Amino acid sequence: MTALSAAIAERPVVLDGGLGTLLEVRGHDVSSALWSAQVLRDDPDEIRAAHAAFAAAGAEVLITSSYQVGFGGPIPDAEIDTLLRRSVALARDAADAWVAASVGPIGALRADGSEYTGEYGLSVAQLRAAHRRRLHVLAEAGADLLAVETIPSPVEVEALALELAELGLPAFVSLSGDSTGFATPGSRSAALAVAASVPGVLAVGVNCCAPGTVLPALAEAPAAPLVAYPNTGERWDAETRTWHGGAAPLAEAAPAWVASGARLVGGCCRSMPADIAAIAAALR
Asked: In which residues is Zn(2+) bound (predicted)?
């Protein structure tokens, strides 16, 4: 396929939607600490089918099911290499699309809601070490790029930027848009600039946030290709592991995101193939 960097230089490209949400609708229990990683481990054909459903809806980039798969998390380390490589292979098999290997924050491995705060108590050096092995396995697994997503704090952005600079694989970096880790004025803008400065980073932006967060966040971003894929508007309760509130139609806002510089556009939690089809139609 054409390099993704060349494609986004010409037009907006459609990302997929909420993989965990679709798996739940397909009958899988994703309420445990493993989330969609449990399906990746136990029923990989369902992961492939979910990817294929998003591709059929118009997604041109499939983000792998590796978000919550990492060393030192709830899955034994002995299984991690196999699962990371499997996540890339399943997305590759599902459709003729770009494959972005998901790299979630350390908070995703903890499954305690800290991907919305970044409050880990870890230094830059500790965070670099925590991410390094997973990044290298995914870089060798055959993905087109890394999807470094839902990053909740400036310190974790810095750690990942340093690792990505050494790794040299194409990537996009997306911040946890509503994270309290960016509550300090100017911190989100500075973190986006740090990420955009890394050679090989194709786009920066926000995900896993309320739709209304997207435009203010993009306005803070540097002059670079941007990425936007929010939730559909519901609020996640990490204690009860449930969603609350109503949904918003993402496709209505997508053209405004593109006008603000977004070149990778899709949905995160709660977004379904129908949402991605509507986004694809709106961007056409």
From this structure: 208, 268-269
What is the rounded CA–CA span in Å between residue 198 and residue 22? Answer: 33
Strands 235-237 and 242-244: what pairing? antiparallel
Give the mean model confidence (pLDDT) for residues 191-212.
Answer: 97
DSSP 207: E
pLDDT at 281: 97
Where are the chain's structural domains? Answer: 4-283
Q: What is the mean pLDDT of the segment spanning 76-101?
A: 97
Q: Flag whether 208 is marked binding.
A: yes
The tokens describing 263, both together, are: 């070149």
Q: What pLDDT digit, counting tens, does each position of 146-166 carry?
A: 999 999 999 999 999 999 999
- Lay out the sheet containing 201-207: strands in order across: 13-14, 262-265, 226-229, 201-207, 171-176, 145-151, 98-103, 61-63
Mean pLDDT of 73-98: 95
| Token code pair at residue 45 | 């054909």
The confidence score (pLDDT) of residue 234 equals 65
- The Cα 20–Cα 204 span in angstroms is 23
CB 181 within 8 A of CB 152: yes
Contacts (Cβ under 8 Å, ≥6 apart) of 15 = 59, 60, 61, 63, 100, 227, 229, 264, 265, 266, 267, 276
AA letter at 77: D
The structure tokens 């990044």 sit at: 135
Domain 4-283 matching CATH 2.60.40.10: the answer reads no
Is 269 annotated to bind a ligand? Reply is: yes
pTM above 0.85, yes or no: yes
Report the 3 state secondary structure along 208-224.
CCCHHHHHHHHHCCCCC
Query: For residue range 162-192, what is the model confidence (pLDDT) as tens digits?
Result: 999 999 899 999 999 999 999 999 999 999 9
